[in-house]
Design the sequence.
């Protein structure tokens, strides 16, 4: 047993009832998917709802546990559930539940893809840089266009997995497993892509021997139609995009490399999250109806 394995972890029963211990500190209990997002969400929700007392966010360990918990608390307006969109909108998997709110982008990280926040982050890391020069040199539209092309094939494979192969991991395997950056370009690691394709092919064959991966990739391309920068920001995995942006700006502007979660938290701290106004309005409407 490793040191990490020996660390006690919260069980499902504890997670499902943890909010009861915080009733005096939370006006509303917000439930999310992943434990490593709770501080991030706390920062965002405190910004969106300054009038609501929120001292603790409750991760439930995935979308399915969130949906189950949500359905067991219908009508309770002190419990709000937030989930990533993933590809659910394209795949018609959105569930209509009053106290369940889907992000309109792939994940919460997608809302950090904001030019002004990135500029503020760069200046905070290198205060002697000229702001106008940073604005000119950042070229965020070009960056997003390059990202769209660089990982398009990988995103289609993830799409196939979410559509057909629920038992396989996809985004959780991590961007670094499949992509490398040489300081100028992003390149897919072909050996890892080939391995991933083989895993998907085997899983498809176990479901139905008539299903072929190449046909599923073509279908994914037709269904998804990721053609514009806006499509990338809305539908590509936000963790992937942000990790690529992080590598680019650290290289271009000579920034110290930060741990990814710290980078995200710093970006969140510099954003007003106006791009999440739709969530704010929907939740307020639900609470006050």
Sequence:
């Amino acid at each position: 047993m490793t040191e990490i394995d020996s660390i006690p972890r919260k069980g499902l029963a504890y997670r499902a009832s943890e909010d009861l211990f915080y009733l005096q500190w939370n006006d509303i209990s917000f439930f999310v998917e992943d434990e490593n997002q709770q501080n991030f969400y706390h920062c965002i929700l405190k910004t969106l709802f300054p009038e609501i007392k929120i001292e603790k966010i409750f991760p439930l360990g995935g979308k399915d546990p969130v949906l189950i918990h949500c359905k067991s608390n219908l009508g309770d307006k002190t419990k709000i559930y937030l989930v990533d969109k993933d590809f659910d909108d394209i795949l018609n998997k959105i569930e209509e539940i009053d106290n369940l709110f889907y992000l309109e982008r792939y994940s919460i990280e997608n809302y950090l893809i904001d030019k002004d926040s990135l500029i503020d982050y760069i200046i905070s890391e290198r205060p002697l840089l000229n702001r106008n020069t940073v604005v000119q040199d950042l070229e965020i539209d070009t960056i997003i266009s390059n990202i769209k092309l660089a990982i398009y094939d990988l995103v289609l494979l993830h799409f196939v997995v979410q559509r057909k192969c629920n038992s396989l991991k996809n985004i959780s395997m991590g961007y670094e497993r499949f992509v490398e950056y040489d300081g100028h370009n992003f390149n897919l690691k072909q050996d890892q892509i080939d391995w991933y394709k083989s895993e998907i092919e085997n899983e498809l064959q176990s479901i139905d021997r008539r299903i072929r991966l190449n046909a599923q990739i073509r279908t994914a391309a037709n269904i998804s139609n990721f053609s514009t920068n806006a499509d990338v920001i809305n539908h590509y995995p936000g963790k992937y995009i942000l990790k690529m942006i992080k590598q680019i700006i650290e290289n271009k502007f000579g920034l110290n490399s930060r741990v990814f979660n710290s980078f995200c938290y710093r970006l969140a701290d510099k954003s007003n999250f106006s791009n999440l106004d739709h969530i704010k309005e929907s939740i307020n409407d639900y609470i006050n109806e």
Summary: Residues 1-8 have pLDDT under 50 and may be disordered. Strands lie at 29-32, 57-59, 79-83, 100-102, 179-181, 186-188. The two ends are 51 Å apart (CA to CA).
